[in-house]
Amino acid sequence: MRPRPGSQVISRHRLPPPYRYALTALWCTPALLLVAAIVISRGINPALLDVRLLLPLGALLLPAVYVWREGVDVLPDGLIARVHVPRYLAYRRLASWHYDPRRERRTLVIWDTKQHTVLECRAGHLTDLPTLLAALDEHLPERPWPR
């Protein structure tokens, strides 16, 4: 199931900006160092556009793209969870959710209608958590934490 084309994103929840920027910069650093070393040793030349260099550079930048895109988007009819593999979670296929506010946990868990966990994430990994919880509360019942 995919979201309807043109579905409006109500809110986006990502890693807080300082961490998101720092992790993205960290993952871009090896590629930048490699290119800088090549430019310093040989100067700017057409070899920088060689596929044998561009493919490893692209592979080095994949974690940076993942960190930048990771998060949860709230749509009127579901959620888009970009954790590991991006996937659309329609509200009608979700059964319940629970937020464990204990200091040592602070974890949000969402279950589907087959009682499988479809999303589990830490509160510190998402910006504006109260807005996300309000959207979940509007569309899904909260259930007690399983013992």
Poorly predicted ranges (pLDDT <50, ≥5 residues)? none
Sequence of secondary-structure elements: EHHEEEEEEH
Helix/strand class:
alpha+beta
- Biggest sheet strand line-up: 1-2-3-4
Shape by Cα distribution: elongated
Q: Give a count of the beta strands, DSSP E runs of length 2 or more.
A: 7
Q: Radius of gyration, Cα only, in angstroms? A: 20 Å
Question: Top keywords for this entry?
Answer:
single chain; 147 residues; alpha+beta; three-stranded antiparallel sheet; 27% strand
Describe the overall structure.
This protein has 147 residues and is an alpha+beta fold. The chain has a domain at 11-68. It contains three helices and seven strands; from the N terminus they run βααββββββα.
Layout of secondary structure:
Layout: E1 11-14, H1 17-42, H2 51-69, E2 71-75, E3 78-83, E4 85-90, E5 94-100, E6 107-112, E7 117-122, H3 129-139
Antiparallel strand pairs: 1-2, 2-3, 3-4, 5-6, 6-7
Quick overview of this protein structure:
The protein is α+β, with helices and mostly antiparallel strands.
